[in-house]
Amino acid sequence: MRLTLKYILLPLLFLFVFSSMAYAQRGVPIHEKPRPDYDPLGIRAGAFTVKPELTLGLEYNDNIYATRRNTESDWITTIAPELDVRSDWTRHALGLNTGLEYGMYASESDENYLDGHIFLDGRLDVLRESFLSGRLGFQRLHEERGEPDADTDWDEPGRYNRTSGDLAYYHGRGKLSVSGGSGFTRLDYRPVDLRDGTTQSQSIRDRWIYNVNARVAYEMHPDVQPFVTTRYEWRRYDRSRAERDSEGYRIGVGTGFDLGGITSGEVFAGYMHQDYDDRRNISGMWYGLNLLWNVTQLTSVEAGVQKLVKETTLEGASGIDSVEANLRMDHELLRNLLVGAFFDYTHDSYQGRNVTDRYYDLGPRITYLWNRNLSAEASYTYREKDSNRSHREYTENRFKVSITGSF
User: Which of 293, 292, 299 is closest to 338 using CA atoms?
Assistant: First the structure.
């Protein structure tokens, strides 16, 4: 599947141009549309609504180590409890979301993982059109086989902790709005057992990422809101032997739009520059697109494209110049039966190394809603990694079914 970016962008452009020819419910994708007969009510606890959830899944993967040859398959059972708590106040807001996911491999138990997260978010309404919002979170995560920095010598998945937080302020005055904020991310990588019986430290990957951002928007028309946006980032490694520390900026102009409630989204373009200490800098066009097209009252299409700079610890490379694109289609076959499909594309170019990777993910999805408290989903995912370095290539097929109970 050796696709190029133009085959991703052209269908998105087609959707944008012809979207006004259809009729649909305003501004809501099908999979998020309210369903009063099937949406969980939650548990009232004073001024809060508590929504517990438990998902049980079974997955078959025909290439669990993401290798080009000598592939191995396995069955994976997943257990994922989650709890969401939201305030029902008329002003201000407070929320908590926490959950776990435990994955158990039938044969290769070294691949077992336990992920978890906890997020606290809130909003303080200062004036009628002004508010302060913030979010603080912690995640325990694992690296999937085949990810950019995952090593084939590892005898287990890489594990790391991610701590993040952000604070933002929004102020509106008539048709003009101004917003700005700052945030941080901390990544701590755990040691990994190797196939030769030794253990490899991953501390060289530990880092801090800081950012400040601002945006000014003006409502030229109720359905058109042009804006200017900018962002500055600092990336600091604890042990930067390869001079991976960097800082850079992004600046762009764009607009939010709503074409009669049928097509809505946001598009922007501008310039980005990331300055690395090793002088292998990344710069060029910065752009993004988020699009929702409600084709009919029963069908929706979502599309997105973004240009970004990602980190890597591949020897000789400073960073990854990356483009990500996605397309999702959903159709309400019955009030309680949703069918859909997705396509994701990633193009990674390593700065300082002649390495280019392309990822393709696609497949169908079916969701069945029994009642307010029980639903089921079945999906198939085909993934292909295409690279100019043949040893980095692989394909895999994943089949998954799950049942979710919620209150």
Answer: 299
